[in-house]
Write a structure and sequence with these properties.
The structure is a homodimer of 339-residue chains. By secondary structure, chain A is of the alpha/beta class. Chain A is built from 16 helices and nine strands. A seven-stranded mixed sheet of chain A has the order 5-4-3-6-7-9-8, with helices on both faces. Chain A has a two-stranded antiparallel sheet with strand order 1-2. In chain A, helix 4 crosses helix 5 and helix 14 crosses helix 16. At the A-B interface, helix 1, helix 2, helix 5, helix 6 and helix 7 of A face helix 1, helix 2, helix 5, helix 6 and helix 7 of B.
């Protein structure tokens, strides 16, 4: 996010916002070249980095200097080293590696859609052909599933704590639009009593199944290929996970969906939405609030809903005791409602 | 620029960098829709704004909320108002309006070039066909001239002070690659003793001539259409302005150019470069340092040079007493050298 405007008149924030796309492409290039892993492995000056990442020294030097400016590298006496965050999230050998996000977040499709922002505002929704998320958009959601699993870890930890506090016996989780599946899979890995049923389009579920296998929970992982709008969801679930899903649709559509999820829960079961939930002012906190723009650009009618909107949607769908949880230091929040 | 990494591990800076392109497109859309002028003129809620900018209310609301997040608007009780900077630089009725920058800075060409960042690093230069700036690239430089004149004002003020301190008599300024011409034109407007000779490609000079006319200095404004590499520059100048130009070329090329500019000056005359000049570490200050990436992406061999590089280039071209000036609060610096 750009920093606040200076107290004396300055076009700096305007200029900075207009050129901020450069940061996205630069970081994506550094990730694609695996620059961070190369530095972590000891190639620390432009000449050895160039050899290591198969590029021209001048190009690598300018990119690495740019990564210092952007806050991912440090430079001392012409040698680069990783910042702590880069070491944890951008060194490919790290278990928390998140570089894969670049491919989805800075995809050609996203750039192309965003470059039509003005038309989207005029129309009030995407001008692309991927706007109706009740239909499969395989190329996009398979890419999402492959790229974004690493982002799920912090919230998946919060979900695990919640589920682990459940009373004895088998715990059945329905994971709606599972994608990479990492929310349900993590919860299952952290608790042998958990059985997960994952719903998504068939092509996407292939990614989730692979992740479940890697996590060693395949025997407690069932898939239901199809649409959340009409596929038989089963019933008697303790939890329905609704992660990064409701923001794709408008309120009436979400109420219809929530009624289906309500029916699939056992009495006392809980619907758990993980999403970008801005405050009631719709302009804070920054990442959650700005997410509405992403939905304006990429969907027909989706956006980031406030808690009061979530509360009403859940109430109208038959839920009670809807609460908001804001785990510290995470861009996403949890909306939890009871059947 | 993204803010510094938090002290505890967080992917926030990585995520923020990867999605920062969204800010560029959002601000460009708000400028294209003239949202800021509409708000300044009193349309302050989504419904009246939608009517005013000819868009759907939902689209305008989400965009305006985004502009609050990005720091250009304020929101109170559902009504938007401009921040002081937006009032000065984004209200079309303001003399300091800078919205025109969006078209050049977030052009399709720039986005397309940046989306090939990885290939540029591998190659060590642009993979586009606009990389050789010794040849005319009319579509680009006419667009630059039309869009970026407003950015020149602060430095043009600094140049005026310098020129106004010159001893009595006619002051002849050669403005290399004049573009919009606003450096030379401003200096001429501020001092009736100044005569400007502007050099640029013919199509670009049309923009400069129009600006000179608007500023009422046409009678002291001469143009020399052509290339800085081989056009007859004339001679006996008090100043040569070299604004945003040398960053397009490598050091040997710049020395060749500087020798030509040296020859065009009268004894004691000054070459004045206005450019992004990073510190010797090449990673501070941020805007100047990051500018090398822009040149890696868009040129064959250009970059943001340090002062020690400028000093050597000028010395090798026959200049003496090269000094660096850093006007406060400006991204650009001045390199001034004497014949």
């Amino acid at each position: 996010m750009p920093t606040a405007a200076a107290s004396k008149p300055s076009p700096e924030l305007i200029f900075g916002s207009l050129i901020s796309y450069q940061h996205s492409f630069a970081l994506k290039a550094a990730i694609e070249l695996d620059l961070f892993t190369a530095i972590a492995e000891g190639a620390s000056d432009p000449a050895s980095l160039a050899k290591r990442v198969n590029a021209v020294e001048r190009g690598v030097r300018i990119l690495a200097d740019g990564m210092v400016v952007q806050g991912f590298l440090r430079k001392e006496n012409g040698r680069y080293s990783l910042t702590p965050d880069a070491g944890i999230f951008l060194d490919k050998r790290s278990p928390a590696y998140m570089g894969g996000m670049a491919e989805f977040l800075v995809s050609e499709e996203n750039i192309s859609n965003f470059s039509q922002f003005t038309d989207c505002v005029r129309k009030g929704g995407t001008v692309s052909n991927i706007g109706d998320n009740s239909k499969p958009v395989d190329h996009r959601w398979v890419a999402f599933a492959k790229a974004m699993g690493s982002m799920a870890a912090p919230v998946a930890g919060v979900l695990s704590q919640m589920v682990n506090a459940s009373s004895a016996g088998e715990i059945n989780v329905l994971d709606i639009a599972a994608g990479h599946g990492m929310y349900g899979i993590t919860v299952a890995r952290n608790n042998p009593r958990v059985h997960v049923t994952a719903l998504d389009w068939p092509a996407v579920l292939e990614v989730a199944k692979e992740n479940a296998q890697k996590a060693g929970v395949s025997d407690r992982y069932t898939v239901r290929p199809g649409s959340a709008f009409d596929t038989d969801l089963g019933s008697g679930y303790d939890y329905v996970f609704i992660t990064n899903f409701l923001h794709h649709f408008d309120i009436p559509t979400n109420q219809k969906l929530l009624r289906r999820f309500h029916a699939a829960l056992k009495p006392g079961g809980k619907a758990v939405t993980v999403d970008f939930v801005p405050n009631e002012d719709r302009v804070t906190p920054p990442i959650a609030a700005a997410f509405s723009m992403v939905m304006l650009i990429n969907t027909d009618a989706g956006e980031a809903f406030t808690f009061s909107e979530y509360e009403a949607m859940h109430r109208n769908a038959g839920f009670k005791n809807t609460v908001l949880q804001s785990p510290p230091d995470l861009p996403q929040r949890l909306v939890i409602a009871e059947k």
